[in-house]
Specification:
It is a single chain. The chain has 220 residues and is an alpha+beta fold. The chain has six helices and nine strands; from the N terminus they run βββββββββαααααα. It has a five-stranded antiparallel β-sheet with strand order 5-2-1-8-9. A four-stranded antiparallel β-sheet has the order 4-3-6-7, with no helix packed on it. A hairpin with a 4-residue loop joins strand 8 and strand 9. The two termini are 24 Å apart.
Length: 220
């Protein structure tokens, strides 16, 4: 999975999600975000705010309509300050999420149940291959001090990592083809993997996921 590089101050977030039949209430705790600052929750890959909350005594609360089981795209929680493009992803079916971030090492982890546990097991972190690829590509394109030989060496390494990332990604989808992680991984990879491979995996998805509007652009 591709994740944006996380910048800014070290933060600790914990979220407790309590769902009724119609609504989920996400209780959040944060350090190093000042009281009076806003937190926002948005749709995945969409900057439209679903709700906002003022941090008071290090705590904040979101109220959202409960997501259906078929909604395999997460919600993204972001602060209003700190130049942090993405902070934590939560599923509104979850009962609890603990978010830990280490800005110095550029990694984060997510805990919760049931869906965030699955994502944590799959090691979706910013020190993943996709993150390394982004760093190498940036270095190759923007560092004017590199010789052509150095750039060629970086390109060779990137090609090796791309192959490795593709293999690992397909293995991850196959392991989780019956659950939300497989649906999510297939969705974000739908234009980057071989069409024949995609179709075979797509046909194995549970109907509740394959019939989702998110796959409208690839469904035959």
């Amino acid at each position: 999975m591709k994740t944006k590089h996380l910048l800014g101050i070290l933060m600790l977030f914990s979220f407790i999600v309590s769902c009724t039949e119609q609504q989920c209430i996400i209780h959040g705790t944060t350090t190093d975000v000042e009281d009076g600052d806003y937190m926002y929750i948005t749709e995945y890959l969409d900057n439209t705010y679903l709700d906002s909350a003022v941090v008071m005594n290090g705590k904040f609360t979101f109220k959202l309509p409960k997501a259906s089981e078929e909604d395999f795209l997460p919600k993204v929680i972001v602060p209003a300050v700190g130049n942090v493009p993405s902070v934590a992803m939560v599923f509104t079916q979850d009962s609890e999420v603990l978010y830990i971030r280490d800005s110095q090492n550029g990694i984060f982890d997510m805990y919760g149940s049931p869906y965030n546990d699955l994502f944590r097991i799959e090691n979706f972190k910013t020190d993943s291959i996709s993150h390394v690829l982004g760093h190498l590509d940036n270095l190759r394109l923007k560092n004017s001090t590199l010789t052509q030989e150095q750039k060629d060496s970086i390109t060779l390494k990137m090609n090796e990592l791309i192959k490795e990332d593709s293999i690992l990604n397909i293995q991850r989808i196959e392991r989780n083809i019956d659950n939300i992680v497989g649906a999510y991984c297939l969705y974000i990879s739908r234009h980057s993997i071989n069409k024949e491979t995609f179709q075979k995996l797509f046909e194995r998805l549970p109907k509740k996921f394959s019939s989702s509007k998110h796959f409208d652009d690839v469904r035959k």
